[in-house]
Write a structure and sequence with these properties.
209 residues, membrane, elongated, DUF2975 domain-containing protein, transmembrane helix, transmembrane, mainly alpha
């Protein structure tokens, strides 16, 4: 079987890219815990003025435009949301919603990190070692496509309860984005299948020869 490896420069770039994806995955995983301890920072905004920059939590931006306008019409909307976010049950519900949103993304990022890093090892058969991780990344992307809008809907439902009577479930899903993400994940998965089939055919040919 042919020992696949990249040029030195491209291999180094892949290793750095793998580290970047890995760091992004770890930060994404760490951000899930933020919901339990500082739910206001679910939505983070950096405000910079002459005195410096500060991180500000703006959870109101997680609502849809219509719901945000409704809340804006209430004079005590910010206080109601703060009280709501302070409830332990609300934090647990938001934590669950964030798990639904972030776990497949973390799996995707870490799988890509390990796959791309394997491509840059220059130890022979790099592609064969990278393919299983890239295949897992495609599967995580496929799972993330429907789970992200579902988790966002759960989160919105929990936040809405701060401004009125309990809402059973508020489902908000952008159909075109969902279909596009599913198609892109399926294409990535099909590419890994094709590469794996090519590697198997090359290995079979090498054994015959």
């Amino acid at each position: 079987m042919h020992e696949y490896s990249m040029s030195v420069g491209r291999a180094r770039a892949c290793r750095w890219l793998g580290c970047a994806f890995g760091l992004a995955g770890l930060l994404q995983a760490a951000s899930i815990a933020v919901v339990l301890f500082a739910p206001r920072f679910l939505a983070l905004q950096i405000d910079c003025m002459r005195g410096g920059c500060a991180a500000v939590g703006v959870p109101m931006t997680l609502l849809s435009d219509r719901l945000r306008n409704t809340a804006a019409a209430m004079t005590n909307a910010a206080d109601l949301l703060d009280l709501h976010l302070g409830l332990p049950t609300v934090r647990l519900e938001l934590f669950f919603a964030q798990l639904v949103i972030d776990l497949p993304v973390v799996g995707l990022l870490l799988s890509v990190a390990l796959g791309v890093h394997a491509l840059g090892q220059r130890k022979g058969h790099d592609l064969a070692r990278a393919l299983p991780w890239l295949r897992r990344a495609a599967v995580f992307a496929l799972v993330a496509a429907p789970l992200i809008p579902l988790g966002e809907s759960i989160r919105t439902t929990v936040l809405m309860q701060a401004f009125g009577p309990p809402v059973r479930f508020y489902l908000s899903m952008e159909f075109q984005r969902l279909v596009l993400n599913l198609l892109l994940a399926l294409v990535a998965l099909a590419v890994t299948w094709a590469l794996a089939a090519g590697l198997r055919a090359e290995q079979d040919l090498a054994e015959i020869v």
